[in-house]
């Protein structure tokens, strides 16, 4: 069986390298330069499609029974514990390196990916991001390109294997003491398992997915550690009603996770209630239509979900104060496309509308990068409008009434810059 596995992996590796070696010439890309942004996006799309074409639905163990249990893991002290456990299971368990995903981590293939991109080695920043999602600052994203929905290759391959595992058998997820929020298992594999089961009602996720804390034992004799009850785990959902994160980190005493791109969070047991009675479209509709309450820098401070049967399973959170109220689906789209720093910078240029009593009656995002994401609320009439920066600076120091008394009607006609200079 070892020879069979090796030959299958080498054959796939050779076919993919041949495809990579012909990519630049077949697409008319001159030698000696990096791919443009549009070329890079097309290459990642094409490469992932070629992998799917080559592998088909054969994402299970190369040898052994196809209904073996898939072992996924994150944060172990040593990943070889998973290799050891699966290798000594008599074919009852397998992990990702026992599948045709393994050749995609071969050095010669990854160096050919770098060559297509136009970088000398696989650890150069663009190639590193495409392959693993690793960013220059040391952080990790599940996406290959900024502002795009294309998964990094690590996550793309893990998604295929995870979906195969839950489709054909059981899945075990083992977490260790080094578990972090950006692990492939946390961001991609377990959400893929949950969503696949959610979209296929014949799969009972509570029977098919088990989470454990660590392996126990010694090399050659590892066994699964303590099972974790995930019923109370915070389950983060996106604006389409899909699971995006299952927070087991807090359950094992490793602290709270920090997740920004989500539309609602509820317990896993509540999620199962929702899954039984509502479609993802119905759940997503309520979550996407909820109101996100943002601070001065565009940071999420709270959300209002309403009192519908779905909404009550996502507790409302009204902060003591907030600066902007936007539709959650719009906020997530802007966050994905622009990022938090850009949202913060562009909010400073939003236009604020006030009534004669200095009460805020509208907000416009026209003329900013946010105009294609956030819906503006421009009143039909108003005595004054000013930039958010001016609004914040002026009214941190004076009330509208004080400004009017000090400077009279001229205040209303001053430019935002001159108002700020007063």
Number of separate strands: 14
Report the β-strand fraction as a percent range: 15-25%
Number of domains: 2
Share of helix, binned: 40-55%
Give the C-alpha Rg: 26 Å
What overall geometry do the principal axes of the alpha carbons give? globular
Mean pLDDT: 88
Number of helices: 17
Distance between the termini: 81 Å
Give me the secondary-structure category. Answer: alpha+beta
Largest sheet features = 5 strands, mixed
Task: List the strand order in the largest sheet.
Answer: 2-1-3-4-5
Q: Could you characterize what this model shows?
A:
The chain is an alpha+beta fold and 422 residues long. It has helices at 2-21, 23-26, 37-55, 80-87, 107-117, 125-132, 153-168, 184-198, 205-208, 268-277, 280-289, 328-338, 340-347, 388-397, 400-407, 410-413, 416-421; strands spanning 69-74, 93-94, 171-175, 209-218, 221-228, 234-237, 243-247, 264-267, 291-294, 300-304, 324-327, 351-354, 360-364, 384-387. It folds into 2 domains: 2-228, no CATH class; 348-421, no CATH class. 41% of the residues lie in helices and 17% in strands. The strands form 4 sheets. The protein has a 5-stranded mixed β-sheet with strand order 2-1-3-4-5. It has a 3-stranded antiparallel β-sheet with strand order 7-6-8. A 3-stranded antiparallel β-sheet has the order 10-9-11. Strand 4 (209-218) and strand 5 (221-228) form a beta hairpin.
């Amino acid at each position: 069986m070892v020879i069979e596995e090796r030959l299958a992996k080498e054959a796939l590796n050779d076919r993919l390298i041949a495809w990579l070696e012909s990519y630049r010439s077949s697409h008319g890309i001159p030698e000696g330069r990096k791919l443009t942004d549009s070329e890079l996006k097309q290459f990642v799309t094409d490469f992932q499609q070629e992998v799917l074409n080559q592998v088909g639905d054969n994402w299970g163990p190369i040898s052994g029974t196809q209904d073996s249990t898939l072992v996924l893991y994150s944060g172990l002290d040593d990943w070889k514990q998973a290799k050891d456990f699966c290798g000594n299971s008599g074919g009852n368990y397998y992990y990702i390196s026992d599948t045709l995903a393994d050749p995609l981590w071969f050095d010669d293939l990854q160096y050919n990916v770098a060559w297509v991109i136009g970088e000398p080695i696989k650890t150069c920043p663009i190639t590193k991001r495409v392959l693993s999602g690793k960013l220059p600052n040391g952080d990790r994203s599940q996406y290959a390109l900024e502002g795009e929905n294309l998964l990094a290759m690590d996550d793309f391959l893990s998604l295929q294997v995870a979906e195969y595992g839950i489709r054909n058998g059981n899945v075990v997820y083992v977490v260790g003491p080094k578990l972090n929020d950006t692990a492939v298992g946390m961001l991609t594999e377990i959400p893929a398992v949950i969503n696949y089961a959610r979209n296929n009602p014949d799969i009972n996720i509570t029977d098919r997915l088990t989470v454990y804390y660590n392996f126990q034992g010694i090399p050659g004799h590892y066994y699964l550690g303590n099972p974790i009850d995930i019923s109370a785990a915070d389950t983060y959902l996106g604006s389409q009603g899909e699971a995006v994160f299952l927070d087991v980190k807090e359950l094992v005493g490793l602290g709270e996770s920090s997740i920004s791109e989500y539309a609602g969070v509820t317990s896993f047991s509540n999620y199962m209630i929702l899954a039984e009675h509502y479609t993802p479209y119905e759940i997503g509709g309520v979550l996407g239509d909820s109101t996100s309450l943002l601070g001065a820098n565009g940071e999420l401070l709270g959300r209002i979900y309403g009192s519908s049967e779905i909404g009550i399973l996502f507790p409302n959170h009204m902060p003591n104060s907030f600066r902007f109220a936007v539709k959650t689906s719009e906020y997530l789209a802007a966050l994905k496309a622009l990022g938090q720093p850009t949202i913060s910078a562009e909010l400073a240029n939003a236009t604020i509308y006030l009534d004669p009593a200095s009460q805020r009656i509208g907000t416009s995002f026209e003329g900013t990068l946010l105009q294609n994401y956030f819906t503006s609320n421009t009143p039909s009439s108003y005595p004054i409008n000013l930039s958010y920066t001016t609004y914040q600076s002026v009214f941190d120091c004076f009330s509208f009434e004080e400004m009017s008394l000090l400077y009279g009607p001229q205040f209303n006609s001053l430019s935002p810059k001159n108002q700020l200079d007063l």
